[in-house]
Write a structure and sequence with these properties.
The complex is a heterodimer of chains A (about 100) and B (about 350).
Chain A lengths: L25 H19 L4 E6 L2 E6 L4 E4 L2 H11 L21
Antiparallel strand pairs in A: 1-2, 2-3
Chain B lengths: L6 E8 L5 H10 L6 E6 L6 H7 L6 E3 L9 H17 L7 E5 L7 H9 L1 H6 E11 L3 H7 L1 H9 L2 E5 L6 H14 L5 E3 L6 H6 L10 H13 L10 H5 L3 E8 L5 H15 L3 E8 L8 E6 L2 E2 L3 E2 L10 E8 L3 H15 L11
Parallel strand pairs in B: 1-4, 1-5, 2-3, 2-4, 5-6, 6-7
Antiparallel strand pairs in B: 8-13, 9-10, 9-13, 10-11, 10-12
Helix pairs in contact in B: 3-4, 6-7, 12-13
Classes of the chains: A alpha+beta (about 100), B alpha/beta (about 350).
């Protein structure tokens, strides 16, 4: 499965191939969704954007107020590239240096 | 339509003149090759390769407009759709495998992406293997001077060394040693003399746990062998720096799947072109047995659950084959992110 299909919203996907998939109980799916949000925001630290929940939608918000609906993980990273102050790179800088204050 | 099971797609790559079409003909002529439809991507107005195989199979669609890795992805998409539609209409015989022969200069990954980007193709086709041919006579020179040849060999699931009857022992030994550096996890067969090409090249499936023993054995051999040095590359100084290297990341601790997957998705988003392969076994708390992970650049196969570990070694091990990326930076990034994600993990979840 292409990384472009790194679904956050419950569609069949490679990331759902181990736990957290559609076969999970609803409370587990909700916990998994919150976990993924928290993990994404951990990686987005310092980029100037955050991923948030808006009802059933996922939204990337920039520090200047721009918002975009996103559908999957790769969409999150692409949108963060467009709206963020800098491109996050897990191999450079310190994008995973701090724990977020909120866990989801 | 042959039912719900997606049709296997084998992608055949290999540098210019490395014997792809000869291998293709041998495969098609071999008894037991099954019903194969062939798509050929060829430069130029006159497709000699097409003429060579047209009498072997009747359902070829030739991609005429040059390199498959850029301009003709839509044409590949259309070609695959046309094949499937023609079979559904009964205008061509039914087939149970598609073999895509690429140009000698193609990067195979966009072909893979074409398969998954199209919703119709995604449901009717599945990637079975990337097979790459390497010429025994010229392979060392091509791998050390041509980026395309190096990337084709590094991304392959199966390697075929061709023209071994024309090379001397020293040439062959040098090439095999180089291939072991470039892609230590891929099984290698040599032609002529490989015997049953169909079972060597078309059997099994990268997503089939029952057939993955071969790859896991290669993976384990490599994991025991430790890190590999970078392959010298003619362009290294001027263009690319350290070029291709492989290494193994091992973890005695269980790896939480979701943090790992989120990290990997960002890694392949940012560095997918340089992450040629990631393959390995993961011990995750969310599953009873090991999980087989297999990624080719931006493309990540659905993880495969195995019932049991292939050996007594139950540590997670991931083989990375990367180009122009620092091994230490990848290790550090993965380790640090997994450690920082630990406090976010909910309490232990029952294994289904």
């Amino acid at each position: 499965m292409c990384s472009a299909c790194g679904i956050l919203q419950g569609n069949a996907d490679w990331i759902d191939g181990v736990g957290g998939g559609a076969g999970e109980a609803p409370h587990n799916r909700l916990a998994e969704r919150r976990l993924r949000l928290a993990l994404v925001n951990l990686l987005l630290e310092g980029s100037g954007v955050r991923l948030g929940d808006h009802g059933r939608q996922l939204v990337v918000r920039s520090a200047t107020g721009s918002t975009r609906l996103v559908t999957d993980l790769a969409h999150v990273w692409r949108t963060a590239d467009e709206l963020g102050r800098r491109r996050i790179d897990p191999l450079h800088g310190d994008p995973v240096a701090k724990l977020p204050e909120s866990r989801g | 339509m042959t039912g719900a099971t997606p049709i296997a797609v084998t992608v055949l790559t290999g540098y210019l003149g490395s014997g792809k079409t000869t291998l293709l003909r041998q495969l098609l002529e071999q008894e037991g090759s099954g019903r194969i439809a062939v798509l050929i991507n060829e430069f130029g107005e006159i497709s000699l390769d097409d003429l060579m195989v047209r009498d072997v199979v009747g359902s070829n669609v030739v991609l005429q407009n040059g390199c498959i890795c850029c301009s003709v992805r839509s044409e590949l998409q259309a070609g695959l759709r046309d094949l499937l539609d023609s079979m559904s209409r009964g205008t061509i015989p039914e087939f149970d495998r598609v073999l895509v022969e690429t140009t000698g200069l193609a990067d195979p990954v966009p072909i893979v992406q074409t398969l998954v980007a199209d919703p119709m193709l995604r449901h009717r086709l599945r990637l079975a293997h990337l097979v790459s041919t390497v010429d025994a006579l010229n392979g060392v020179g091509q791998l050390t001077s041509q980026d395309e040849a190096l990337r084709q060999a590094a991304t392959a699931d199966r390697l075929v060394v061709t023209k071994t009857d024309l090379a001397d022992e020293e040439q062959l030994a040098r090439l095999l040693a180089l291939l072991a550096e470039v892609n230590p996890r891929a099984p290698i067969c040599q032609v002529p003399g490989a015997g049953d090409l169909c079972s060597l090249l078309l059997s099994g499936d990268v997503s089939d746990p029952l057939q993955s023993g071969w790859d896991i054995a290669a993976l384990d051999r490599n994991a025991r062998a430790g890190p590999r040095a970078a392959v010298p590359h003619a362009h290294a100084d001027s263009r690319h720096g350290p070029s291709i290297r492989s290494f193994v990341v091992r973890s005695e601790k269980q790896i939480n799947w979701t943090p790992f997957a989120v990290w990997l998705s960002l890694m392949v988003h940012r560095h997918g072109r340089q992450i040629l392969r990631v393959k390995g076994l993961l011990d995750v708390p969310e599953a009873n047995g090991p999980v087989l992970l297999n990624a080719v650049q931006h493309f990540i196969h659905p993880p495969v659950h195995l019932d049991e570990w292939p050996s007594g070694d139950r540590t997670s091990r991931l083989v990375f084959i990367v180009q122009d990326l620092e091994e230490a930076a990848i290790r550090r990034s993965m380790t640090e992110f997994l450690a920082q994600a630990e406090p976010l993990m909910p309490g232990e979840r029952a294994v289904p």
